[in-house]
Design a protein that fits this description.
By secondary structure, the chain is an alpha/beta fold. Helices cover 32% and strands 21% of the residues.
Length: 363
């Protein structure tokens, strides 16, 4: 569990090695351009996505803000370092970690409704081919591994199993371990429902237990490195299942969101909407590139045609930011997380996002 007391005692003043042109400004630096115009200097940690590329390149900027981007290959290190040490001002963050910490009180970070990673998760359920698991209900009575109970992908997958397929999660023996390496542990405190238990196994990995037959299945965002001949997906045609689920529910699972250190937002409440608009503009420009038939913006055949097809099924913005556009997904995740003991109280949309980004000006 994260020690919030330790986080709150963290010195907020910048070190003396602040960037040239910066002056001390309490919790954040103020950067002065050569023109004499001042802006707030913030550090930003995120994964290298196509739809944030122009932010990292400095081509899309937020009004009044100078960013130092820190680009990582995956979310695990970002979430670990930000939840434990708050090492930067703005961070991509696991939705599960954020909702759990926020449910426990005033978390040291506040999220804005920017969702850099959204992934349908029927594909995240892997089973041993020799255990006779042909349908979701067959998981009852089995041993199933998870990398963390509070992994966002797992929360969605378990919620779908319970609500869409009638799986009784308490009839599954749950084990927790790193996907391919031993030693992974939970990052937040859990309140599992009565009759449900998740046994930690820091001595091994999910891949090892799946290969040896100690567990029957794995629910994980990252695929286990078990022998391919022995491991298959529970839903072989997962795309069809995910499309059906989306059409029925409107749920497009949100994996990560963007969070701001609470002390920074309290000092500069205007940065929430300005950052939101920056991410929205970078995403809009990304989709314009992907839909360009003139040249191959990504090295895949028919990429532009596929982008058009997806927009036809998902709408003109198939990857929406904002609260109202994602309300069915957010409300479902709040329900899943509470039912599974990830949150300490039932959360709602108004509990997750500051008032500065709950509505936008209209002309």
């Amino acid at each position: 569990m994260v020690s919030w007391g330790l986080l709150r005692r963290r010195p907020e003043a910048r070190r003396s090695d602040a960037p040239a042109g910066a002056i001390r400004g309490g919790a954040t630096n103020v950067h002065v351009e050569a023109t004499g115009i001042a802006s707030v200097h913030l550090t930003l940690a995120m994964v290298d996505y196509e739809h944030v590329r122009e932010i990292a390149q400095g081509l899309v900027r937020a009004d009044g803000i100078t960013l130092t981007p820190l680009i990582f290959p995956s979310i695990e290190e970002i979430t670990f370092r930000f939840t434990n040490n708050l090492e930067w001002d703005v961070s991509e963050l696991s939705f599960a970690k954020y909702i759990s910490l926020t449910s426990q009180g005033a978390a040291p970070m506040v999220a804005i409704p920017v969702f850099p990673s959204r992934v349908h998760r029927h594909s995240a359920i892997y089973v041993r081919a020799d255990r006779g698991i042909k349908a979701a209900k067959d998981l009852e009575g089995c041993a199933v591994g998870v990398p963390e109970w509070a992994q966002t992908a797992g929360i969605y997958a378990r919620g779908i199993l319970a609500e869409e397929f009638g799986v009784d999660l308490s009839k599954i023996r749950w084990l927790q371990a790193g996907v391919n390496e031993p030693g992974r542990t939970e990052k937040v405190a859990l309140r599992l429902p009565s009759g449900m238990r998740c046994e930690p196994r820091p001595d091994t990995s999910l891949s090892a237990m799946l290969a040896s037959g100690e567990i029957d299945a794995v629910i994980s965002a990252r695929a286990p490195e078990a022998p391919n001949s022995r491991v298959v997906r529970l839903f072989p045609d997962y795309r069809a299942e995910e499309a059906r689920f989306f059409k029925k529910t409107g749920i497009f699972p949100i994996m990560h969101l963007i969070a701001i250190r609470r002390t920074v937002l309290e000092q500069h409440p205007w940065i929430a909407m300005n950052l939101f608009k920056m991410f929205e503009e970078a995403k809009r420009r990304c989709f314009n590139r992907l839909r360009d038939f003139t040249c191959a913006r990504i090295p895949l055949p028919w990429a532009a045609a596929i982008a058009e097809e997806i927009a036809g099924g998902f709408g003109p913005d198939p990857y929406p930011y904002g609260i109202e556009e994602s309300r069915p997904t957010i409300e479902a995740f709040c329900r899943y997380a509470h039912d599974q003991g990830v949150t300490h109280r039932r959360m709602g949309v108004d509990d997750l996002f500051p008032r500065e980004v709950r509505a936008m000006a209209r002309v």
